Amino acid sequence: MSFSGDVKEELLSVNGNGRHCQIAELAAYFSYCGFVKKSNSGHMVIGIAAENKAIATKCFTLIKKTFNIYSGILIRKHSFSSKILSYEIRIEKPDEIKEVLMAIKKYKESEEPVLQSCVDMLLLKKDCCRRAFIRGTYLAIGSMSNPEKGYHMEFVFDHEDMAEEFIQILKTFSIGAKMVLRKKNYVVYIKDGEEIVDMLNIMGAHISLMNLENTRIMKDMRNSINRRVNCETANIAKTVNAATKQVEDIMLIRKNYGLHRLPDNLRQVAEVRLAYPEASLVELSQLMDPPVGKSGVNHRLRKLSELAERLRVN
């Protein structure tokens, strides 16, 4: 199962603190997966459509627990594959439909309700209810990438106003989500690792949160080691290139000028460098007699380089 699937599986067992939280979570399912239809007899039917059996089961359980309503479940096979099923949680009795619509604040007297619309903010006045609503939204239309590959959580909306509303709800928890248009959908996404951790905490996915934190720690350690190795590799390459250039300069001086004509301090460092072409400046300083500081060795080698450049010009 994917990491996103693991998060959803954990959230399926998370329930709100009270009836108000259960209604808030149901409001998310009805807002993003809800439908209004006509039955064969012409009466109105409302419900929730789900591709996932576990989510359909949770919706059924929430409706039963919150309203004491035994909703019907219709299982459909997709036209292109008999192995793929979809589930409809249906409420058909007029009094039960009214009760549910009034609770999620989508009831309109003598008008057909529009379920897939913005949520009434009166349902989300409490912090716990907003958490329940966000949890329901993730189960309905959310997903996230494998944190081993990158940090990305997203929610796919059919309508721009609903996406913008959800961004405002997330802001109450200091989550800075952004929105992008992808084909005909409005995608609200979060890419910051810390904010995704906060989202998992908000929704109540604490086991997934710990797994993500462990992954982040391991990634940070690997990145730190890679940076250190890259830095050391770069330093070694820089040292080798500098030493190679120094040896070339000294050999040019020996051929065209003569090391015996150099001052003693320059001659000595030239001879030590030729004898130990792979030594670092620190190692060269310790090989000098008497020992010289690293900066002193570097200064003398620079003088030799300047002499070699003059000889090249001439």
Structure notes:
The chain folds into 2 domains: 3-204, Homing endonucleases (Endonuclease I-creI), CATH 3.10.28.10; 230-313, no CATH class. By secondary structure, it is α+β, with helices and mostly antiparallel strands. Strands 1-2-4-3 form a 4-stranded antiparallel β-sheet. Strands 5-6-8-7 form a 4-stranded antiparallel β-sheet. It has helices at 3-11, 19-33, 53-67, 94-103, 127-141, 160-171, 193-203, 206-256, 264-275, 281-287, 294-313, and strands at 34-38, 44-50, 72-78, 81-91, 142-144, 153-157, 178-182, 185-190. Strand 7 (178-182) and strand 8 (185-190) form a beta hairpin.
Q: What value does the Rg take, in angstroms?
A: 35 Å
Q: What's the name of the CATH homologous superfamily of the largest domain?
A: Homing endonucleases
Structural class: alpha+beta
Give the DSSP E fraction (strand runs of 2 or more residues). 15-25%
Level-1 CATH class name of the largest domain: Alpha Beta
What is the mean pLDDT? 89
The major beta sheet can be summarized as: 4 strands, antiparallel
Number of strands: 8
Task: Looking at this protein, list some descriptive labels.
314 residues, alpha+beta, Endonuclease I-creI, 2 domains, four-stranded antiparallel sheet, rod-shaped
Task: Spell out the blueprint of helices and strands.
Layout (H helix, E strand, L loop, with lengths): L2 H9 L7 H15 E5 L5 E7 L2 H15 L4 E7 L2 E11 L2 H10 L23 H15 E3 L8 E5 L2 H12 L6 E5 L2 E6 L2 H11 L2 H51 L7 H12 L5 H7 L6 H20 L1
Antiparallel strand pairs: 1-2, 2-4, 3-4, 5-6, 6-8, 7-8
Helix pairs in contact: 2-3, 2-5, 7-8, 8-11, 9-11, 10-11
